[in-house]
């Protein structure tokens, strides 16, 4: 993550903070004297990192609230406390790393990290492989067979798996990196999607309970400043995802760490979430106001004035020490009712605090946080897009209002912010794949009879659902798992035209733009956030026979190429299923599918290549006027923030690629076709 020079300051050696678990300190009161009026601090930011902190021999975790905290402050135990009981060690798991049998409750109580120390590093590249599968860090080894797992009968969380090979080493649990964080998020969301598909009501809680019990997390070591593997602008769809990567592990909106300064116990704020009652109403991308804790009616007591203690004191101490605080913003999720998206907005300084009367007339604290300059934009991107969509501010540097010329439901602008180029190479924009090869004819009986309803919500006899392995392939409009083939409803089917199983037929659902890149020509990105598994668009063009593509055709999709492996699907052990139920990610097309988008195509033709892509392709079949054709759908590999370039793996012919790759990823192969 990028930081400005202003954020590169540290505590003086004489002010080094001793970080210790609070239970190792002598009990003492942390109540301070309330200050009236406005406090203003003008200091250089302190971004103390791990090397600046004197570590205690026990894990960095606050395992109990301070004795002087009031119940109204709503403090929950922080991560780090291990549950009672032990579980038999699996092969490769070091001694002394027992898992917890404690079932997941509402607070984040985490077992000790348990893991196999045997891992294989691999590219996290997406796409589809005809070769051996490589595991990224944090991915499980291939299972030789099904294993009996232990579930919590109330939450359905998995509490232990004998001989589990997908654990995280103790070191990776403490300190992570981008590869490990991405893989853990991918695994977590895959489990969540499957639980949702299985009808588990609170899939997020169940998934995080499983990951806690098995020690599947990283960056458990509390720290001031950035978290390894988490970049400014990264988005999260639940708090459990922030816990897994170590960005924010508390169940409340403020996370703090216990430290010792001159043998005095202190609480220091290290991360806040601007959400719920603490959401910043001004929504300024450069600063925010965070409301204090306490003073609310609870446990039979009436409302009262907020005091400078507990969590408020932790924020005040950040002012005194001039240490940075991680800030997570929140936005309403337009695709899910009453749900939020969390945006990591980088490092802030707590610069001011004051008290003012609240709505109930009692005094309450407020804290002002100012964003450290020099960081790449995070929340500001969301603010800009909201203004563009509302029409308050025009999108700068638009060269063409709509490259689809009205063919799509939403306009697709052409934007150039790096040069004066205004024109595209000529092509015909179409929304339907053109098949020039023979199609398979199907009978009218090959249809669903879900009359006036959506498939998957009927009596369980839907023909289209049966073809998809007796499972609806989507949940909350995202793909649950990659399959050898996804079967969509066709023109013979009786379901609604907007049935959730008509994904590629109903056009674009998200606002896209074609933009000029610095090195790779024109590219594609979305104004909207894209959740992992979200359908982006179909790859549209002319279907041609293998070998008919020209050497000068840079718009070729070829299913027969070699693609980097992507273990995107859920692990059957983590959802308590037998291996026989596992969905294969290997595609088995009878013949290669080759599509040229040089002369005719849609917005997908502008999607560039990457050896570590954020988009994958999925073969899909649907009937149209009695003919059955294969289509290629493009889906999000992971959560993609707005204005992030969308790229998929073009693949390689046997041998070295023809073109030099400039994707810039850590797993770049150097060439592609």
From TrEMBL:
Domain of life, per lineage: Eukaryota
Residues covered by the SET domain: 510-651
Subcellular location(s) per record: Chromosome, Centromere; Nucleus
GO terms under biological process: methylation
Gene3D superfamilies cross-referenced by the UniProt entry: SET domain, SRA-YDG
One cellular-component annotation, GO: chromosome, centromeric region
GO molecular function: double-stranded DNA binding; histone methyltransferase activity; zinc ion binding
Domain (YDG) ranges: 225-371
PANTHER family referenced in this protein's UniProt entry, alphabetically: HISTONE-LYSINE N-METHYLTRANSFERASE SETMAR, HISTONE-LYSINE N-METHYLTRANSFERASE, H3 LYSINE-9 SPECIFIC SUVH7-RELATED
Protein name listed in UniProt: Uncharacterized protein
Species name: Arabis alpina (Alpine rock-cress)
Classification of source organism: Eukaryota, Viridiplantae, Streptophyta, Embryophyta, Tracheophyta
């Amino acid at each position: 993550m990028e930081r400005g020079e202003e954020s590169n300051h540290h505590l003086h050696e004489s002010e080094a903070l001793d970080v210790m678990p609070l239970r190792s300190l002598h009990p003492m009161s942390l109540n301070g004297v309330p200050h009236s009026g406005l406090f203003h601090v003008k200091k250089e930011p302190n971004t103390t990192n791990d090397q600046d902190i004197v570590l205690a021999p026990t894990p960095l975790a606050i395992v109990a609230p301070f004795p002087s905290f009031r119940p109204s402050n709503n403090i929950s135990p922080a991560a780090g406390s291990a549950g009672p009981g032990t579980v038999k060690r699996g092969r490769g798991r070091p001694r002394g790393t027992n898992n917890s049998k404690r079932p997941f409750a509402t607070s984040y109580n985490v077992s000790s990290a348990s893991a196999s120390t045997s891992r294989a590093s691999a590219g996290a590249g997406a796409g589809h492989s005809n070769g051996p599968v490589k595991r990224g860090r944090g991915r499980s080894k291939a299972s030789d067979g099904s294993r009996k797992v232990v579930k919590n009968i109330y939450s359905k969380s998995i509490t232990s798996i004998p001989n589990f090979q997908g654990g995280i080493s103790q070191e990776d649990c403490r300190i992570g990196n981008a590869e490990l964080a991405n893989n853990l998020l991918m695994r977590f969301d895959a489990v969540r999607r499957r639980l949702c598909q299985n009808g588990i009501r609170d899939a997020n809680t169940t998934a995080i309970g499983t990951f806690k019990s098995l020690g599947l997390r990283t960056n458990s070591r509390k720290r001031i400043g950035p978290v390894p593997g988490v970049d400014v602008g990264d988005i999260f769809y639940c708090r459990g995802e922030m816990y897994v990567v170590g960005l924010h592990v508390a169940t409340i909106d403020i996370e703090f760490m216990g430290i010792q300064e001159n043998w005095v116990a202190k609480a220091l704020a290290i991360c806040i979430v601007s959400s719920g009652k603490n959401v910043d109403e001004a929504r300024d991308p450069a600063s925010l106001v965070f409301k204090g804790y306490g003073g609310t009616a609870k446990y039979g007591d009436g409302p009262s004035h907020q005091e400078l203690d507990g969590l408020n004191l932790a924020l005040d101490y950040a002012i005194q020490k001039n240490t940075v605080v991680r800030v997570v913003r929140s936005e309403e999720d337009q695709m899910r009712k009453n749900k939020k998206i969390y945006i990591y907005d980088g490092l802030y300084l707590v610069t001011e605090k004051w008290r003012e009367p609240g709505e109930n007339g009692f005094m309450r604290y407020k804290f002002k946080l100012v964003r450290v300059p020099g960081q790449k934009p995070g929340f500001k991107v969301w603010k800009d897009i909201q203004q563009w969509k509302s029409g308050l501010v025009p999108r700068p540097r638009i060269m063409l209002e709509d490259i689809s010329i009205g063919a799509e439901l939403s306009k697709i602008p052409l934007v150039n912010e790096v040069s004066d180029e205004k024109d595209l190479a000529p092509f015909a924009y179409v929304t339907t794949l053109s098949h020039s090869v023979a199609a398979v004819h199907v009978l009218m009986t090959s249809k669903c009879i879900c009359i006036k309803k959506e498939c998957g919500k009927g009596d369980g006899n839907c023909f289209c659902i049966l073809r998809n392995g007796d499972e609806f392939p989507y949940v909350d409009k995202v793909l649950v798992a990659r399959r050898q083939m996804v079967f969509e409803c066709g023109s013979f089917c009786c379901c609604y035209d907007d049935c959730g199983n008509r994904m590629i037929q109903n056009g674009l659902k998200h606002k896209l733009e074609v933009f000029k890149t610095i090195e790779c020509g024109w590219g594609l990105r979305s104004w909207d956030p894209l959740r992992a598994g979200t359908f982006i668009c179909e790859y549209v063009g002319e279907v041609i026979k293998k070998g008919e593509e020209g050497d000068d055709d840079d718009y070729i999709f070829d299913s027969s190429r070699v693609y980097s492996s992507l273990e995107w699907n859920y692990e059957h052990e983590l959802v308590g299923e037998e291996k026989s139920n596992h969905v294969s990610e290997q595609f088995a097309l009878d013949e290669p599918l080759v599509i040229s988008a040089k002369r005719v195509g849609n917005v997908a033709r502008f999607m560039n290549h990457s050896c570590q892509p954020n988009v994958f392709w999925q073969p899909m079949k649907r009937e149209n006027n009695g003919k059955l054709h294969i289509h290629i759908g493009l889906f999000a590999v992971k959560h993609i923030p707005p204005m992030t370039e969308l790229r998929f793996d073009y693949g390689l012919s046997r041998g070295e690629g023809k073109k030099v790759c400039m994707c810039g990823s850590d797993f770049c192969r150097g060439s592609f076709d």
